[in-house]
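Obj: model holo form, ligand = 6-O-phosphono-beta-D-galactopyranose.
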Amino acid sequence: MHYKTPKDFPGNFLWGASTSAYQIEGAWNEGGKGMSVIDAMDHPEGTAGFTVASDHYHRYQEDIRLFSELGLKAYRFSIAWTRIFPNGTGEANEEGLAFYDRLIDELIANGIEPLVTMYHFDLPYALDEQGGWLNRQTVDAFTLYAKTLFQRYGHKVNYWITINEQNTLILHPGAVGIPKGGTLPTKKELYQQNHNMMVAQGRVMALCKELSPHAQIGPALNMTSMYQATSKPEDAIAAHNWETLRGYSFLDLAVHGRYNPLLWSYLEERDWLPRIEADDFDVMQKGRPDFIAMNYYSTATIAESTGSAQDVSPRAGDQQIMLGEIGVYRPEENPYVDKTKYGWVIDPVGLRLTLRKIYERYALPIVITENGIGAPDELTEDGKVHDDYRVQFLRSHIEQIQLAITDGVNVFGYCPWAAMDVVSTHQGYGKRYGFIYVDRGEFDLKGMDRIKKDSYYWYQRLISTNGKDI
Ligand code: BGP
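Output (holo structure tokens):
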């Protein structure tokens, strides 16, 4: 659809940026914090761990000043569950609670709306040792944790995000990492975890209505569209298979509290159906989201399964994420799109398409909580970071968001990844996403100075003109 004049961004559009606790904070064992699965895991060789990260725990005031100067209207970050409950449950840690009081207050004082993720991959290790999400007690622990957050911060937080990328946790557990000496769960276990997480999320969304009725709450999933490799009907089925199993089946459970029929058949045939307790559907159906938070990086192109091991291959440049599944789908190259230096497909138009599909299907407002380009940014001799590729990436995606808004999609915010450089989930510190460069090496921490990249100034102008000066 071509338009003569795209619509303007709404006046109250939340121009923001995103991070997560374990990737930005550091201070992994300070302030009474307990160990999370992230702290307990093995890092791929040659990459930095998360112990210091961007040292935001100690420098959050300086960082928020920079966010404020950037003009951010919103900041999406996560609370480390283990700062609040070092052992995952039991007694809350006042020092941890006080840290996020200070962080949230500082944001509000700077006119920045906090978008708070409750759980971004960093499950308390103590819970993991007792079976993690396979154990129904983790559902109770998450409910207690969320209740504590609503009670403590409910009067100052207007947007809550329950769980970050549950679909990544379930489909690619190796990407997030598993604690040292641990083994990857089986598929059957993963779908049981998925079910239990959905029940936990349902409970928490209902609790939000009770304890913090002014606030809005929603899940954050990694959503994308799948293109069929050719016009062969079987390729279309394969693309639909993976689009459903990878994305919509998760949103169907989160939004409607029901299993997508294709997912159900897929699980049933493989004997992977989860154990479901009597009131689980009731809980999931009562706890409805107010919005959908969506992380979008790229699209994929899909062909019919060959029925052999050839279907399965690692994602480009990334041995930890296997794509393809025998009998379900096979990944194909897309000749019409570029890729980042890390092999991720760059597809701004795919963002418009995905926004349309999600809005059509669920009719809920959407906030984009992640989108960005990982690159080995360089601090040049002039003391600057010339990340024109990032400006180009973000500009092209924002243009497509504007078109999606013109298409009629209700998008109320954009929080690209990342507000500043953070540790990549499994590719170290060298893979950077931020508007602000943090001067540290993979292992050499240097001074950790904060340096505004070229993209910082570009985004600052864009925000100040509400998206007009792109
Ligand atoms: C998302 C995660 C983020 C972040 C991002 C970039 O899936 O929610 O935490 O890590 O991906 O990925 P990476 O760091 O692997 O490049």
